[in-house]
Amino acid sequence: MTEAKKYEYVLKAGTKLVSPEGEYTIKRVLGQGGYGITYQAKGYRKGDNIPHKYAIKELFFKEQCWRNPGSDTVCFPPSSKQETLKDFLKEARRLNKLCRSNRNIVNVNEVFEANGTAYYVMEFLEGKSLRDLVLEQGPLPERVALSYIRPIAEAVEFIHSSHQLLHCDIKPDNIMIRLDEEGQPMEPVLIDFGISIHFNKNGELTTTHNFVAWSKGYSPQEQSLGLQAILDSRKKMHEEGHTHIPLIPFEMDVYALGATLFYLLTATTPPLASYGLDKIIQQKVATLNVSDKTKAVIINAMKQDYMERTATAKAFLKGFEERYYLQRWFVLKSPNTTYQIVSDLMDENECWLKYDATIYTGDTDNHNTRTTGYIVYEYFEKGFSNRNADESVTDVEPASPRLSPFGLYIKHCKKLTGLDEVGECKKKTNIILSELFHANGTTYAVVRKGWKPEPAIITTLRQQFKQLGQSFKALGKHLKSIVKGIGFVAIITLFLYGIYVVWNSIDPIKPWGKSGPAPSPADTVNAVSVDTIQDGDQSRDTQADVSKEVTPESTLPKTPLPSANDIAAQQAAKKKEAEIEERKKREEVAKRKAEEDKKKAEEAKKKAEEEAAQKAMQYLNGARTGENHRQAYQWALKADPKTKAEVIQKLKYMDYPIP
């Protein structure tokens, strides 16, 4: 069949779909089944200018619906349109509620009508389907296959027991692998509920259509008879007294779970459900390198006779080997931080179990984690170690000196982490790279994804450079001490030299050629008299000159005393200056206090915004309920503008309107 014929009536790339909550542009067709067409689209939600990828399911019966040339409107047979639309919208809205309670069910964001039909908008899962994974890697190891099928079986048990809903099309193509923000595989997700069937609590059919798909290899034989034939048969058996047989045929989905597990382990499509199936399955399963319990789960789930088949998904889960590894979402505390296990068992050997983990930042119910990925190795010996109900580990034989396996474990962990002692931790920018610690009754080694211990030669060189740096540092300390000593001596020398220069710069009067104190006026007069006696006439001239130089005290100018007004004016001026200085001081103190108050107010506002942002993100990442939605919005209004915009933007994609 050509591609054009296969997708004869699909919407063309670039087609616009407008809903009450957003606008979407069709990019390409993801697939078309008997009940609908799935597209990849890019869309803008109401009030958001950032485009996102979505998957959109369109109601379109392949054999009954058509589009006229040049038109996007879907044409239905007049007799079936109303009931078909009603069923599709009802199932889509039911799925919208289901996905809030189980992480392994695809998220449905919006349901609306357009182009004469109905659509629902889902998250676009970037990861591969389980079929793509097996085609790429071949048969999966038992532990990996179980890590995918068990969460899906738990999701199926949830929709069976809590909502009386049959999926009716479980197969590897309809199980996608959700990726985290770093593009790493995180968990399997069940998709395509387009042909699901709903019942009320009394086992009565509430879905008006009776169309069920039949997938070769994954659907039991009775499913090919049609839904109505199955329900009529069940009702008749009840009337005949076989009340132990449930009215709702849950075992049809159980068959599909067993067939999907068969495919994961063998990489081959299961044989067609027909006469002799039981013998064929037993022969093929017998050759698998898996536990006897896993073999029994597949054989019992794929029984040809539905009365002999595993009846419920809950019974399907109980058939596996009892869990001995940590449960997903377990919170593990180390001396440095807290981790949360985000995968089932990833790998194991004789003495350790391997998991994926992230740093834990929220409560257990909401699974709030950061995206930094870690690998956790847990010391656990099968046959000697025991997993308790609280997930702790105890030894079955505490006195057993099993040093060899433990020694291998420690050696393996040291090789992975590059650590020498238990509890040692290497950090860089507050992100833990690796650590080895005791907790939960056993020992754990944690390594950040993508990080590897540096080669031994690099470690040796870094240690040598470190020692060389310490030697230079010690030498620098000695040189510093020497320089300090030289500087001190130089300062003392300069100080003494300065005193010497100042002392010699003084020029005292030296009357007899010797240093001494300056002569007094009386001594000067006596000296003049002696000269007069000795030199005769010359004495008169000298005395005359001296008399000219000596001014009588009575002839010196006298400074007038200040008046009382002058003193008062001076005191007033000083007082005014003191007041001005005091006012300046008070203004400076008030200014400093205002700045401190402003700073405190800003800090208090920032702290309140941070607390509000934290609360908003906590409720945003919490369970998808109306109360959490409202609380997230209320706290976002009190947060900083960036967080407020981010939270409100994310709230627009959720199921409740912004208050």
Topology record:
Layout: H1 3-6, E1 16-18, E2 22-32, E3 36-45, E4 52-59, E5 66-67, E6 74-75, H2 81-98, E7 108-114, E8 117-123, H3 130-137, H4 142-163, E9 165-166, E10 175-179, E11 185-190, E12 197-198, H5 227-239, H6 251-266, H7 277-286, H8 292-301, H9 313-318, E13 331-333, E14 338-341, E15 347-348, E16 352-360, E17 369-379, E18 385-387, E19 393-395, H10 403-417, E20 425-428, E21 431-439, E22 442-448, H11 456-504, H12 521-535, H13 537-549, H14 564-620, H15 626-638, H16 641-651
Antiparallel strand pairs: 1-2, 2-3, 3-4, 4-8, 5-6, 7-8, 9-12, 10-11, 13-14, 14-16, 15-16, 16-17, 17-22, 18-19, 20-21, 21-22
Helix pairs in contact: 4-6, 6-8, 12-13, 14-15, 14-16, 15-16
